[in-house]
Design a protein that fits this description.
single chain; mainly alpha; 194 residues; two-stranded antiparallel ribbon
Amino acid sequence: MKAYYSSDASSSSDTTSSLVSSSNNNYVSLNNAKSLNDAIDTLSDDSLYEKVTTKDSDGNTTTDYDWDSLYSAAEDFVDSYNDLVSSGGNSSVSGVLVNVSSMTNYSSASKSVLASVGISINSDNTLSINETKFKTADISDIKSVFNSAGGYASMISSNASMVEYYAQSAISSGSYTSSGSYSSSYSSTYSSYA
């Protein structure tokens, strides 16, 4: 009898851990989706695509795009995308899973466009960026990917926004805490009136 109850307690502990882990993953997915949208907002800023004039130590001036800033913004996009693919792919929320899947499918369909700006798709559906290829890409290709209405980044942003929505909904709808009690915004609101 004692063995039965101890195995049942272990199972209950595993279930609670799983629920807490799922809830934590929703927070991670939510934050990763927000980070991805922030990276896309940076890449969508027209000022990033303006030429700048710089002067070297010898007094020579050159006018060109700020390739270091462009690359840094694109690298942030790739890192944020990869974080969301990783966390969202482990979500227990179907809306999160569907939208992360849509992101990876759209990326696969855009493989040649991404390659034109030095971005490749890895076997685990994450992205990689090649700095040399990116910095030698045609600026119109980069703008087409990251700074055009209905372009690649715009579509990815739509999916990231939906991940935010579904992750936030899952967090707000309530879950079990690590102590096994149920927590939700609705039950705390109810308690304040009782």
